[in-house]
Amino acid sequence: MDAPPRWLNREEKAAWDSFIRMQETLIGRLSRRIQADSGMSASDYIVLVSLTERGGGRMRFLDLAKLVEWEKSRMSHQVTRMAKRGLVAREECPDDGRGAFIVATPAGYKAIEEAAPPHVEHVRRLFIDALTPNQLSTLGRLSKRVLDHMEKQPD
Known about the structure:
One of its GO terms (biological process) is response to stress. By secondary structure, this protein is mostly helical. It contains 6 helices and 3 strands; from the N terminus they run ααβααββαα.
């Protein structure tokens, strides 16, 4: 027999509800600002930031999908849309005929370089400026703790 659900108590539910509302509101507002400021979708921005900041301008397709926590099909559709607009290109992997690299094009670099300054200003205005340095440090540690915990849990 399955164990009964471990329902959230009042404090747990309040914390969870506040976190979800904050996260969804923040992401929604930032997504709308990216679109308005640069014409890029939030998904375009995530892919380009991942490629240019973490990947040196190119990453294996599956590594990129894993980094942004997307299914392969979502990443494939996103890359196809971005390639049609000239922001990224697919390159075959010479070591593995099944693998591919996703590469930020010069237009992709230009787009992210133009979009990043207003985006970081919105992040600062909506998120960073709401917290003291100590609160920000605590939030960073708590977020890392939850991420580390999730790594140990089955998906």
